[in-house]
């Protein structure tokens, strides 16, 4: 796995990782799921304007999907504005996802979907397509991946990746000769399922893990330290909060979560950073993890602190020591086994 600091990231030096086919992306990615719905109203114009702050900070990699509402369109508008600004344009990376509905995966179906993303994102080639499939019993995901691999060879896409595939299917796909650059999975101090099986396979096959849910939708922060358990729609006001509160409940509940926050807060104070930075750095340091996807607050108040936390988490000045890991693991070892309760990565999306 090749990591090195960026030399063209604006005001800060954000470390990057090189994917299998050579694409360099930031190790902190700007996640655009929050514009897909369930996180409040989205104003496309304000969202486009807000993207500049991330670029100025050196956070030049955006993660989106064809099913994330206007995400690809917002990226495309910003991309177009950058190119027409007349200024020196920093390298911008756009990773999207192809999430087809069940059905025949003929080449023309795949081509049409990719062309739509190309048009929306206003690019000539897709930097990275992360493929998701809802039902493993329907083996046509292999047909789709075969076409994606062919289109990659033809230059339509640069990196071919997966989203929420488990280790068994990852092994199956690569055994067919399909080269996979990364797999996007949930990975956090709460959900450490990738460490059970997937990390080892990914390290052996030069496949990066791009992780989401690393901050549990914002629950892994000082804001919830000592806070009463959120249970109502008013206190779980976004899709992210609701989703990751359910994960915490399965993992061990609010009392154990408070023990974790107390531990993280003590580490953060010793290291001069935030709980969010510690939680992110813990996952960044895991084997096979190429990058962490942090929800992008496009046009939302408080984005400045959010960006600052992200930069701190990947700073070489922040190092988690053996004593920090021991303190964290003293809490997490008391949790339930999510591999046993849920299954491998992505199984929560499949019945």
From TrEMBL:
Gene3D superfamilies: NADP-dependent oxidoreductase domain (3.20.20.100)
Domain (NADP-dependent oxidoreductase): residue spans on this chain: 27-331
One Pfam family recorded for the sequence: Aldo_ket_red
InterPro entries: NAD(P)_OxRdtase_dom_sf (IPR036812), NADP_OxRdtase_dom (IPR023210)
Recorded superkingdom: Eukaryota
UniProt-recorded name of the protein: Transcript variant X1
Organism: Nothobranchius furzeri
């Amino acid at each position: 796995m090749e990591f090195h600091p960026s030399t063209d990231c604006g005001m800060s030096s954000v470390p990057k990782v090189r994917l299998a086919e050579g694409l360099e992306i930031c190790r902190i990615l700007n996640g655009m799921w929050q514009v897909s719905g369930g996180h409040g109203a989205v104003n496309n114009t304000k969202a486009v304007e807000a993207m500049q702050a991330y670029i100025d900070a050196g956070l030049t990699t955006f993660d989106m999907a064809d099913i994330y509402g206007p995400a690809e369109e917002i990226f495309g508008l910003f991309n177009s504005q950058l190119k027409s600004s007349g200024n020196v344009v920093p390298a911008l990376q756009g990773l999207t996802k192809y999430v087809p509905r069940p059905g025949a995966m003929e080449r023309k179906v795949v081509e049409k979907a990719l062309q739509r993303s190309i048009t929306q994102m206003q690019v000539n080639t897709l930097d990275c397509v992360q493929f998701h499939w809802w039902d493993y019993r329907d083996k046509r995901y292999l047909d789709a991946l075969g076409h994606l691999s062919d289109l990659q060879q033809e230059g339509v896409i640069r990196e071919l990746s997966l989203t929420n595939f488990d280790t068994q299917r990852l092994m199956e796909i690569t055994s067919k000769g399909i080269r996979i650059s990364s797999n996007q999975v949930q990975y956090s101090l709460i959900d450490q399922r990738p460490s059970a099986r997937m990390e080892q396979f990914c390290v052996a096959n030069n496949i990066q893990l791009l992780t989401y849910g690393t901050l549990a939708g914002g629950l892994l922060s000082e804001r919830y330290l000592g806070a009463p358990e959120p249970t109502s729609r008013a206190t779980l006001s976004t899709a992210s909060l609701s989703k990751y509160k359910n994960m915490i409940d399965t993992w061990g509940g609010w009392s154990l979560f408070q023990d974790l926050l107390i531990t993280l807060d003590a580490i953060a104070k010793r290291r001069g950073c935030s709980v969010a930075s510690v939680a992110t750095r813990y996952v960044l340091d895991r084997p096979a993890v190429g990058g962490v996807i942090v929800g992008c607050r496009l046009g939302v108040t408080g984005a400045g602190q959010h960006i600052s936390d992200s930069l701190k988490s990947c700073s070489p000045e922040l190092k988690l020591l053996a004593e920090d890991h021991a303190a964290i693991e003293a809490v997490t070892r008391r949790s339930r086994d999510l591999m046993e309760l849920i299954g491998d990565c992505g199984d929560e999306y499949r019945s």
